[in-house]
Design goal:
The structure is a single chain. The protein has five helices and eight strands, in the order E-H-E-E-H-E-H-E-E-E-H-E-H. By secondary structure, it is of the alpha/beta class. The chain has a single domain, classed as Rossmann fold (3-Layer(aba) Sandwich), CATH 3.40.50. The strands form two sheets. A six-stranded parallel beta sheet has the order 3-2-1-4-5-8. The chain has a two-stranded antiparallel ribbon with strand order 6-7. The N and C termini lie close together (12 Å).
């Protein structure tokens, strides 16, 4: 069995219902994420928290030092769990995430968090491209409705399309219940 690491992407306060960019289903996703994190801690699986932070104090999201940029309490880091600060969509870009994974001997990753169609997508694809087999726990991720060219796509469909694309060619996709039952 390969040495696994859990990557928790951007479960930050700005995504909560009272935040600057509320995501559909974020509270349920964060609750599932908390269960997965608790399981990882119980099994001594390293947990890597990723937090997006904007450098501009007046940034529309995740302004440095703002309450919205903080990781949600229910999934907050514990002990010496690393927190990787990122400024780009891809958690590997200009961060030490790969170094952290390699330092911990990680050979495969489980990814949870937000947003399914952006930062989760970028992290999963980069991880796989770097040689880390990945699993996404779909109901521990959240996104929002998207609009393009006058067409609004509901969050559930955005999320389903991302998970289908992952499962089609990039990684395993599972539910919280199935993931925890297999551990």
């Amino acid at each position: 069995m390969k040495h696994t690491g859990l990557i928790v992407i951007d479960l930050q306060n700005d995504y909560l219902p009272d935040g600057k960019l509320p995501l559909t289903g974020i509270e349920a996703a964060a609750s599932n994420a908390a269960s997965i994190i608790a399981d990882a801690r119980a099994r001594s699986i390293p947990v890597f928290h990723v937090r997006h932070e904007s450098v501009d104090a007046d940034a529309p999201l995740f302004a440095a030092g703002s309450p919205g940029a903080q990781i949600q309490t229910c999934v907050a880091p514990a002990g010496d769990e690393p927190v990787i600060i990122k400024r780009h969509i891809n958690a590997f870009r200009e961060t030490d995430l790969k170094h952290q994974l390699d330092q911990h001997g990680i050979e495969e990753v489980v990814v949870i968090g937000a947003m399914s169609h952006m930062c989760v997508d970028a992290c999963v694809r980069a991880a796989v491209d770097m040689g880390y087999p990945a699993t996404v726990v779909h109901d521990a991720c959240a996104t929002l409705d998207l609009e393009f060219n006058g067409v609004t796509t509901p969050a559930a469909q955005v999320h389903a399309a991302m998970m289908a694309a992952f499962e089609f060619g990039y990684c395993a996709v599972t539910s919280t219940q199935a993931y925890l039952a297999a551990s």
